[in-house]
Amino acid sequence: MTWSITTEPAVSATATALWREYYTEVSDRWYLRFEGHRTDPAELEREIAAQTWAELTPPTGRLLVARYGGEPAGTAGVHLLDAHTAELRRVYVRPAHRGKGGAELLVRAAEDAARAICAAHIVLDTRSDLTEARALYTRLGYTETERHNDEPYAEHWFRKELTPVS
Predict the structure, then answer these.
(1) What domain count does the chain have?
(2) Which of 44, 77, 115, 160 could form a disulfide with 89 if both were Cys (CB 3.0 to 4.6 A apart)?
(3) Are 77 and 132 in contact (CB under 8 A)?
(4) Is the Cβ–Cβ distance between 134 and 124 less than 8 Å?
(5) Is the peptide bond before 152 cis (omega within 30 degrees of 0)?
(6) Domain ranges, residue 68
């Protein structure tokens, strides 16, 4: 089986299903960590309904969908914050496909997408409990840096300079 990564409309059925899985997992992890229960289903629906996906729409954003053996397996988004800075968002690989190299491929594809929209560097935020994500970003050359946003759940901020591809 092989991986493929394509750009898709952020509102596609595949992207929406992957976003729902991503949000459910990270929200459940947060609620279990701090409140001892999973996400309230009504809150989940409110949060999903509130998403416009505008930031992941061309010309200043992209949503990438990874497939493993043709089956949707993960997603990542990138969008411009300013003329030179892209933000990496919503990196997610379905549990059944983890450990097969998809996350690294998604992040590298997102970096390429950021270069394509003229970003010189890329930033992201994550939480302390998302240890797998922090390890991935460090392994891929991201360095922890100062806060770059006011995201209430963020606890770690990373940055990477994007070397132009020749």
Answers:
(1) 1
(2) 77
(3) no
(4) no
(5) no
(6) 3-161
